[in-house]
Amino acid sequence: MTGPRRSPLSVAAVAAAFLVALPGAALSLDIELPPGAVIVQSGPQVDGRFEIAEGPWQDGSVPTREVSGLVQRMTWQMPATDTATVDLVSARFESELAAQGFEILLSCRDRACGGFDFRHRLDMGQGPEMHVDIGDFRYVSAVRDDGSGAAAVTVSRGGDTLYVNAVHVGEGPARGAWVIPSNRAPELAGADGTATADETPLTSPPEVETGLVATLLAGGAAPLDDLGFRTGASELSGQDYASLTALAGFLAADADRRVILVGHTDSEGGREANIALSEARARSVRRYLIETLGVAPEQVEAAGIGFLAPRATNVTPEGREANRRVEVVLLDAG
């Protein structure tokens, strides 16, 4: 695997930082990340809601708390080294959150969190910018003592790359970017460390590699974007799918390869019904791979998480269509 992808605004070998602008307060959360950290995704502040976990997966669910306010998301990638590990980087976030008046609700590691079930119950970011290895990640959630904000951080590793996804929910009017380059990177920030007025919004860099298999190997997951599902329908709406043909060839080349198909829906309808529908969609894709393309049943599993991990808005027909999808996740052999 190659190193982390760099956005046009990244500065090589400069430590990234994340500053949480707390409306109405002078304090900010400034966490220095290891050298080589690159911001690869930054969303705008959007008034909305976000779910953070209060405990690990248990009794078939994850206990969550819904927080509302200005939601800001940021994703970094960096080389994984002896000083940039999943545990060390997540510990740094946790320590600084606590130091800045946040109460840590949950700090857990992969299997202790609940593994696959925990990961796919929560929004931890989307590929290719964010990769979550269900066997190698840490999750931290926190709320401010005065109730003015909340945060969720996921750190994971994929190959030689470390991935960090952070979400902050705060109160008050937007005051520039929530996460901006630190004043340790003056080329990208004002003299006081705040975003400059004409700052260009950060966007995801273009893909260097193309093709389903390349995306799957690089990030551990890939969307099957040529599949089609109508609202409320679980059966595939077409007959020929290049993504499934490529996936079948990938699995046939090595009998030890295993994947899980994860179904997603739009937000129309109830939560339980949509989870059942998303599972049905994943099972229909699994059936197609086995019955039509000859994939060995033991190489492919199926699961569904309903509308809990949208990749687009559910307000528009186009967004809902994008959310009705199945993604493939690469599992460790054995």
What are the salient characteristics of this protein?
13 strands; disordered N terminus; seven-stranded antiparallel sheet; 7 helices; globular; 334 residues; four-stranded mixed sheet; 2 domains; 60s Ribosomal Protein L30, Chain: A; alpha+beta
Description:
The protein has helices at residues 86-99, 110-113, 115-121, 212-219, 242-252, 271-291, 317-323; strands spanning 17-21, 28-32, 38-42, 46-53, 64-79, 102-109, 137-144, 149-158, 161-170, 221-223, 258-264, 300-304, 325-331. Strands 3, 4, 5, 6, 7, 8 and 9 form a seven-stranded antiparallel sheet that branches. Strands 10-13-11-12 form a four-stranded mixed sheet. Strands 1-2 form a two-stranded antiparallel ribbon. The relative contact order is 0.14. By secondary structure, the chain is α+β, with helices and mostly antiparallel strands. It has two domains: 17-188, no CATH class; 212-331, OmpA-like domain (60s Ribosomal Protein L30, Chain: A, 2-Layer Sandwich), CATH 3.30.1330.60. A hairpin with a 4-residue loop joins β7 and β8 (149-158). 22% of the residues lie in helices and 29% in strands.
Please describe the topology of this protein.
Blueprint: E1 17-21, E2 28-32, E3 38-42, E4 46-53, E5 64-79, H1 86-99, E6 102-109, H2 110-113, H3 115-121, E7 137-144, E8 149-158, E9 161-170, H4 212-219, E10 221-223, H5 242-252, E11 258-264, H6 271-291, E12 300-304, H7 317-323, E13 325-331
Parallel strand pairs: 11-12
Antiparallel strand pairs: 1-2, 3-5, 4-5, 5-9, 6-7, 7-8, 8-9, 10-13, 11-13
